[in-house]
Amino acid sequence: MSQAQVSDDEIFGGHEGGKLSVTATRPITQARDLSIAYTPGVAKVSRAIAEDAALAKRYTWADRLVAVVSDGTAVLGLGDIGPSASLPVMEGKSVLFKTFAGLDSIPLVLDTTDVDEIVETLVRLRPSFGAVNLEDVSAPRCFELEDKLKAALDCPVMHDDQHGTAIVVLAALRGANMVLDRAIADQRVVISGAGAAGVACTRILQAAGVGDVTVLDSKGIVHAGRAGLNPIKEQLAETTNTAGLRGGLAEALKGADVFIGLSSSTIDESLLATMAGDSIVFALSNPDPEVHPDVAARYASVVATGRSDFPNQINNVLAFPGVFKGALDSGARSITENMKLAAADAIASVAADKLAADHIVPSPLDPRVAPEVAAAVAKAAESDGVTG
Known about the structure:
Layout: H1 8-15, H2 31-37, H3 41-51, H4 56-59, E1 65-70, H5 83-101, E2 104-109, H6 115-125, E3 131-134, H7 141-152, E4 157-159, H8 160-180, E5 188-192, H9 196-207, E6 212-217, E7 220-221, H10 231-239, H11 249-253, E8 258-261, H12 269-272, E9 279-283, H13 293-296, E10 300-305, H14 320-330, H15 337-351, H16 369-384
Helix pairs in contact: 5-14, 6-7, 8-9, 8-15, 14-16, 15-16
């Protein structure tokens, strides 16, 4: 059933009372059970942890618990709607962690937009969780927040809007290039959107060896010397647009091999006609892609969107459950660039057995995805020396 066929009653009914609950892992049916799970037995465990803090990993759930954290400033395509309105999204994220990776997680929505306050809050809560999934935090604050949290916490931290999107975009591009028998190093990629996802996609594609990336924001091509760039965009300008292009989308798309839409802008189909032959179009804005996939298919050989009712859905759920599972399984203290690249390769490998122009990534419901991603991420963590 596509999203268009789901009624409002079904949607609200599916969220009524929330989507999460806490269940006990040990039954308590008699007095003996109670004395083990709680007083007096629990005191022995608490004393042991007080003497050796490392035992908390064995005798509590904290080491396997992901904190899903948001301030509600960039929720889906809804924007700054606040922490309470963001909570259904964070609950949904926790449901996906449990469903696809077997990980427990807890949504934490914070009534502050101050980066230092958020960092301080999570530092204080650190004994209660084993990893942090940042979600729906507005740019450019999200970059500062992630950097400060990674410096302050001794556990995996990842802003999924950045890196989850980037991982799946890279996996999809690898799949598309396998279908077209193209080399990623020979391609010029145009990214529309210089927010959280756009910046992260640029960085991971560069790390993967893409030949050239041209990034656009609402004012046009991000290039060296352009006035009014914030520090993040200044960094982009230094490493992208090697062709030295100026102007807007028309100038950027002419002769380009790949278009990746990560903004709410729309594209006139006449611009797609100016792209190189066998082009690739990822129109990822939700719920309305930058260009309808049927229109894009008139010009591009491979088309993807972020929607479930069209082929090639680029969905973060392909990445984040396995990434966090792999990080926690390996005892990683952080999530490195190589771990993200390994995740992308693992996703692409799962799709390889049915690879086609309309199947460049696996289904989000494919049960092989999270285990393969977790294994690849854990191996990369060990290779990078961030475990233990």
